[in-house]
Design brief:
Blueprint (H helix, E strand, L loop, with lengths): L2 H7 L4 E5 L5 E3 H17 L7 E5 L6 H9 L4 E5 L5 H11 L3 E5 L3 H4 L7 E5 L7 E2 H6 L13 E2 L13 E2 L12 H10 L6 E4 L6 H12 L3 E4 L5 H11 L3 E4 L1 H8 L3 H4 L9 E4 L6 H11 L3 E5 L7 E4 L1 H6 L6 E4 L1 E5 L12 E6 L5 E2 L3 H6 L9 E9 L5 E6 L4 E3 L2 E3 L2 H8 L4 E11 L3 E10 L7 H12 L10 E4 L13 H9 L1
């Protein structure tokens, strides 16, 4: 259950296919190239438990680098290719990396990375870097002698402040051991060596990286999109007979807003499992996706921290619309501000107990801040929600985004879910802005489908649309229009950046 075993049986099978260029990385190349880089890590003095960081676009060698670190027993940090120089420097220094790998395409920003023992650049070379290709060429293609499993140490996206490195315990297990996530994926989604997994998001994010590597453990083919395009996504499902894929709700919305003739143009019959997570999905959006694709839309709720895992299948969801599932890993508790457990139906902060433990690297204060007030060691991702009588969790919003207007708690996600499906809305954020009388008032920031329609008439239409579906106090009192909202490629909205503009 790792690339070396697959390469021994099916060396020419595609491990990675790049959607844009069509470039193929076979299992032989994945195995041999990751072995070469593993030997280079050892030659540079890196031993199990040491750290390597890499910043790459969705590149043919991205998963080669990840597997090299993984089979060397290292912690590895995949860094967003969208970061600026200062942000990159912070993460490389904070994680304690002894090696840093990047590509010529990112050379300008990569130059800001602190000096480490091994600095490699793919597809070219710049000052302070060694050519990756030249450095690995002389290394053996066989496994290193002390091969063992490492672990990713990824940084939360920073939607609520500076990114935090999530450091799990290092198992150093043999490469043949499947791990908890693969066992969950096998149990829920039944992949096999014959599966084709389409990854439309940046690989540096937790779910795309972890799921791609899990599918490769089974010998499946991973098709990687350089960037998401809704029609190209549908075309790729047809072209490669994709069986499994993982998306985020904004991708669903973009595909649903394609013209009918485009949506029905492609054969999607091979798709057995569409998995979504990362952000709440408006109920009407998921209803329409199930109507279009059939009962193959699966959902889970988890975080980079790995402290719990909830799941809901399509039929279950249709009976409990809006839920993100019930726990398969860890136990869910809804707590008030003092840490008291709340009964079903009452909103509070979502905490996990009895799940894997984690810490924020080098920051015990942040680690303590996500633990429950009564010191039981329960941890939260910062979401607000409630449980129903059957134990299904429903998310209301992020704790940090809750609006308090006139002493009333308002969860902006409710209005966002309503406005997101309006035919004239391409993207939307709802937030609290300063109000002298009420403390905060509800505002929507909208990216219109047609920029020419931005103005008072559309503002009035959207407010009335929301009021026809929600209590008036939950609806925006005003709407601002933007050409684009600050959104992470994985679908997460950087609402903090919008809030800062209004609260300066």
């Amino acid at each position: 259950m790792y690339p070396g075993a697959i390469a021994a049986v099916s060396p020419d099978k595609p491990a990675v296919i790049m959607a844009g260029s069509g470039e193929v990385v076979t299992y032989r190349k994945l195995d041999e190239e990751s072995n070469r880089l593993a030997h280079l890590f050892r030659a540079a003095g890196l031993r199990p438990g040491d750290h390597v960081a890499f910043m790459l676009e969705n590149h043919p060698l991205f998963l080669v680098v990840a597997w090299a670190a993984h089979r060397s027993g290292l912690y590895y940090t995949a860094i967003s290719s969208r970061l600026q120089a200062e942000e990159l420097a912070y993460i490389v220094e904070n994680c304690g990396a002894r090696a840093f790998i990047t590509s010529a395409r990112l050379a300008e920003v990569a130059a800001a990375a602190p000096e480490v023992e091994l600095r490699l650049m793919i597809d070219g070379v710049a000052d302070g870097f060694t050519s990756y290709e030249e450095a690995v060429a002389a290394q053996p293609t066989t496994p290193i002698e002390d091969e063992c499993q490492g672990a990713d140490m990824l940084y939360s996206s920073g939607t609520t402040g500076r990114p935090k490195g999530v450091k799990p315990p290092l198992s150093k297990a043999p490469m043949t051991e499947p791990g908890v996530l693969l066992q969950l994926i096998q149990f829920l989604f039944a992949p096999s060596a014959d599966s084709v997994y389409l990854s439309p998001a940046p690989l540096y994010h937790a779910a795309p990286l972890r799921y791609s590597m899990c599918f490769q453990k089974l010998g499946a083919t991973v098709v990687v999109m350089e960037r998401f395009d809704p029609e190209q996504y549908l075309a790729l499902v047809e072209r490669y007979r994709v069986t499994h894929s993982q998306l985020v709700p904004t991708m669903f919305i973009k595909m649903l807003k394609l013209p009918e003739e485009v949506r029905t143009k492609y054969d999607l019959s091979s798709l057995r499992c569409a998995i979504h997570a990362a952000a709440p999905c408006p109920v009407p959006v998921k209803e329409r996706m199930i109507e279009w694709w059939g009962p193959i839309v699966h959902e889970y709720y988890a975080g980079t921290e790995g402290n719990g895992f909830l799941y809901v299948g399509p039929q279950e969801w249709l009976a409990h619309k809006g839920t993100v599932g019930r726990p398969l890993l860890g136990k869910v508790h809804i707590l008030d501000e003092e840490g008291n457990e709340l009964p079903p139906g009452e909103h509070g902060t979502v905490y996990f107990s009895d799940g894997p433990r984690f810490e924020y690297h080098g920051d015990p204060g942040k680690t303590r801040a996500v633990q429950d007030p009564q010191g039981r060691g329960w941890t939260t991702l910062g979401d607000i929600g409630y449980l129903d009588e059957e134990g299904y969790l429903y998310l209301t919003d992020r704790r940090s985004y809750m609006i308090i207007s006139g002493g009333v708690n308002i969860y902006p996600q409710e209005a966002e879910n309503v406005l997101a499906v309006h035919p004239k809305v391409a993207d939307v954020a709802v937030l609290g802005v300063p109000d002298e009388e009420m403390g905060e008032q509800v505002k929507a920031v909208v990216q219109p489908v047609d920029p020419a329609e931005a103005g008072p008439a559309l503002e009035a239409e959207l407010i009335e649309y929301c009021r026809s579906r929600l209590a008036h106090y939950k609806c925006p009192r005003s709407v601002d229009f933007r050409a684009e909202l600050p959104r992470h490629p994985t679908g997460k909205l950087y609402k903090r950046l919008l809030r800062e503009e209004y609260w300066k």
